[in-house]
Amino acid sequence: MSVAFRREGDDEHLEPKFEIPIPPGPNLVTARGKALIDARVIEMEARVAADLDETALKAAKRDLRYWQTRQVTAEVQPVPDGSVVAFGTRVTFLLNGKERVLGLVGDDEADPAAGLVSFSAPLARALMGAEEGELLPFNGREDAIEVLAVDAL
C-alpha cells in the first residue's frame, strides 16, 4: 500500500498548539500588576498539579510558562508624581468632545472596560509626557486631545 493512503493516527491531523505570544518591549508593571501576575502563576501551578486530562494539562502548562515568563521579566515601576502623563498615572482628557478617564498600566494588567489601557496602546503613547491643559495631536488631527487632569493611580 502507498504511504499516501496510510494513516498513522489522528494526532498528526490536529491543529498545532502554539505558545502564547509575549508582547514586544519591556514588561513594565505597577505594583498591582505584579501582584496579579504572581496570583496567575499560583493559579496555573495549582491547575498543573490537579489531575487533568492530557489536553487540559498541556494547556495549563502552556499558560504557566507564559505567566512565569511574565513574572520573571516584570519591571515594577515607581509610583509617578502625577505632574505629567506617564506609566502608572490616571489621565482625564477630552477626545472628540467626550470626557474620558484612562489609567496607563502594563500589558497584562490592561482592561479597557475598567478604564485601564496598556502603555503601548496608540492612545496611551499619544498621551505620554503631556501635562494638564495641554492639547495633543491624535489620529491625524491636531489638538484632538485636551488633557484635563493627571494623577497617580
Textual characterization of the structure:
The chain is α/β, with parallel strands linked by helices. It folds into 2 domains: 25-76, no CATH class; 89-152, Chitinase A, domain 3. It has helices spanning 31-49, 54-73, 122-127, and strands spanning 27-29, 74-76, 89-95, 98-105, 116-118, 135-138, 141-152. It has a 5-stranded mixed β-sheet with strand order 5-4-3-7-6. A two-stranded parallel ribbon has the order 1-2. A hairpin with a 2-residue loop joins strand 3 (89-95) and strand 4 (98-105). Helix 1 runs antiparallel to helix 2 (54-73). It starts with 26 loop residues before the first strand and ends with a strand. InterPro entries: GreA/GreB_C_sf, Tscrpt_elong_fac_GreA/B_C. This is GreA/GreB family elongation factor. Keywords: Elongation factor, Protein biosynthesis. Pfam families: GreA_GreB. GO terms for molecular function: translation elongation factor activity.
